[in-house]
TrEMBL record, chain A:
Signal peptide: none annotated. This is Thiosulfate oxidation carrier complex protein SoxZ. SUPFAM superfamilies: E set domains. Coiled coil: none annotated. It comes from the Bacteria. Residues 10-104 form the Sulphur oxidation protein SoxZ domain. It comes from Propylenella binzhouense.
Length: 109, 153
């Protein structure tokens, strides 16, 4: 499914200095728990997004460690205090070793 | 049933995330007992008894669909202070495994608030534990009644 994984983020394009802004992120991913069985009764192996990181200009803003109890298509809403113009970078890490990233600039006015 | 999971390619932020019907937590009946959750909390808290206060967990009283239950946490205090929150961990007592997610906050977070969507296999307590930089530990708990469990079976 890796080819279909597509992150989406909603980040305000502008902020005033030191404003706390809300960020929303979503990535489409089945978050296979490893508890389900297929029609032959075999366990479907676990495959989840296990880590999500948000950085601003290389500094950590927010991080989440995910377990299989997070719903499919993991959604996060959190905030960032914007000290200067810069770039938010978001990274999702898959159990299969892949990682998916997305970036968006914020301009301080 | 429920073995074919339809991928949804088109998703809208803010709208309800796609629900994989009957797919979530199909277990062999194993559930995290309340004791397992208590042990996980005790491990996280370094043996300390979590206090009430500072952390608020928001969850619906009734969740019609256990596959996608919206939850939010909020912790009081200045994130640059010595007793600022570092980590919030969510547990679900009645799921096959108690762990749900850990949020790590930094001074750049601006406010210690986060939301996500979780799976609940059945009616149960959801517990949020906040660990502060000074080692103190706070907890909040909400019961969520689940109409259709996130396990379809």
């Amino acid at each position: 499914m890796a080819a279909n994984v597509k992150p989406r983020v909603r980040v305000p394009k502008t902020a005033s200095k030191d404003e706390v802004i809300v960020i929303k992120t979503l990535i489409n991913h089945e978050m296979e728990t490893g508890l389900r069985k297929d029609k032959d009764g075999k366990i479907i192996p676990r495959q989840i997004i296990n880590k999500f990181t948000a950085e601003f200009n290389g500094q950590k803003v927010f991080e989440a460690d995910l377990e299989p109890a997070i719903s499919a298509n993991p959604y996060f809403e959190f905030s960032v205090k914007v000290p200067e113009s810069g770039t938010m970078k978001f990274t999702w890490v898959d159990d299969n070793g892949s990682s998916y990233t997305e970036e968006q600039k914020i301009e301080v006015q | 049933m429920g073995m074919h999971v339809t991928r949804r390619s088109a998703l809208a932020l803010g709208a309800g995330a796609a629900v994989l019907v009957g797919a979530a937590l199909r277990s062999g009946g194993a559930e995290a007992a309340a004791e397992d959750t208590a042990k996980a909390i005790s491990d996280l808290a370094g043996g300390k008894e979590p206090q009430a206060g500072r952390i608020t967990l928001t969850a619906p009283e009734i969740a019609e669909n256990g596959n996608t239950v919206p939850i939010s946490v909020s912790v009081d205090g200045d994130l640059a202070a010595p007793d600022a929150v570092e980590t919030v961990t969510i547990f679900a007592e009645g799921n096959p495994n108690p762990g749900v997610v850990s949020f790590h906050f930094t001074p750049l977070s601006g406010s210690a608030e986060a939301s996500t969507r979780m799976r609940l296999a059945k009616t149960q307590n959801v517990i949020a534990v906040a660990k502060m930089r000074d080692g103190s530990v706070y907890m909040d708990k909400k019961e969520v009644k689940v109409t259709i469990g996130g396990c379809g079976g």
